[in-house]
Amino acid sequence: MKILVCISNVPDTTTKIKFTGDNKFLDTTGIQWVINPWDELSLTRALELKDDPKSGVKSVTVLHVGGAGSEPTIRKALAIGADDAVRVNAEPSDAYFVAGQIAEIVNREKYDIILCGIESSDYNGSEVGGMTAEFLDIPSFSSVSAIMIEGGAPVLTREIDGGKEIIATECPFVAVVQKGIAKEPRIASMRGIMSARSKQIRVFEPVQVEALTEIDAFEKPQPRAACKFVDPENPAELIDLLQNEAKVI
Amino acid sequence: MSVLVFTENWDGKFKRLSFELVSYASSLAGMLNTSVTAVTIGKAEGDELKKLGEFGADRILNITCPQLSFLDNRAYATIISEVARKENSGVILFSNNNTGKALAPRVAVRLKAGMASGVNGLPSGVEPFVVRKRAFSGNAFAHVVIKTPYKVITLAQNSFEPASRPTGAIPEEMEVSIDGSSVKASILETQKQTGRIVLTDADIVVSGGRGMRSPDNWGPLVELATLLGGATACSRPVSDEGWRPHEEHTGQTGKIIAPNLYIAVGISGATQHLAGVSASKYIVAINTDKDAPIFETAQYGIVGDAMKVLPKLVETVRNIRKH
Questions:
Q1: Pick from B99, B184, B308: which is nearest to A139 by CB?
Q2: Which of A44, A83, A132, A157 could join A182 via S-S bond, C-beta 3.0 to 4.6 A?
Q3: Residue of B nearest to A228 (CA)
Q4: Per-residue exposure over B88-107, b if at least 16 CB sit within 10 Å of its own CB, e if not
């Protein structure tokens, strides 16, 4: 069984986000790039499955659609423990384009389980996983918080509004994963970092898929009004404000 | 060219977010000079379906499919895409919840539609079609141009006020059939949360962080939430420590919520936490540290010890509720 983990290269989540003067692009000055947090968790779960000899998972490949500039992030995924990596050499212009590229790689290399994070922390799309599955015409499961493989058969936990479902399925499928999929992201060991240098990143040129959307401009949220402080000895005043000023209780 | 809206039902019942979505669809249809078709799959019946008409659905389609007993993303997306083609729907709308996130991208590929997710308002223009969506986990918005004839949108929860616009539409039943062998999954078990308000549905959320100091101190926080008719939540360190269940973790990697009122108790307000709650209409912060970043986002604040402030708040609310 082969697992493909799709990773996004995103600004570190503590980064102060700034845009270029015309608000068209992210100002990348001084940004620390990291693996999208959910993708890091899905990589961790994929490696845990591979560590378990009963799972039947033989390899974990990471896939990234992006320019050569994101190779340090791919190397990090290799250092954490992925066996090899594929990079599609193209700007990830929109989710439809990216999903089309991922589907092409899956068709070419035949993966059994394709993992995508629930969203990327930059464009917050929640689109690529489901789109990839539809391109491939295979099942997809969203909001997945656990993946087990029992006797060669995958069993997933899917979060639904106000509960969860335990689902049995068969390969191939796309799982769009969220919190819970792994406890903590796995950290690269010194040995992992050393061996990552010799692991292969195969680079493919993109196939023809047109982007269907484009970003016209970014906008920063309006700063909120200054906080109104209430005397800690008199919290009744807070309740009064919530009732009569904000009118929310 | 109609606006098609997928209204999810939960065991036959709609929630507020379904009505938000129909109201949004109705305003959008006004801009496009067209009508609204609401579609739901399975279980919903007469009077419940008619409610969609009170918020502006001109047509209400209740689709039943004998081969489908659960949410199979591929089958649902196929059915919705077929309806969109038949109805000649230019825009297909979903809620940006678990189900919407699962179905919308599949429908977008089937229809070769440009998609924008987590949209929080009506388009700023329809020619070109530009919508504003959440980006950088609440630190920015992106104005997205959708360039295709079909357009797929997921609407952020609690970003549009449901408005009464009765159409008197009579629900129509439609039975569809799918190839049962295409469903490659089965539900082994369903676990439902009972007795408590579902966090993502709550109008009011009371949330605790490390400032609560111990898992034994949550009594007054839970009581305040109960008195206010709200849900409880927590920050990541609290769920990581196992003080509260993981389902309550709100923040970038936990649940992303947008209640009318979010009361953050003993939460300093790290970027990752704010990413999950910044869309709340009002934020109240209670924290001992007057320089905590949460006060930059909160509209109301109390600098004080949660252990002292919470019981007083509970007392006040209890007195009001008595009268």
A1: B184
A2: A44
A3: B300
A4: ebbbbbbbbbbbbbbbbbbb
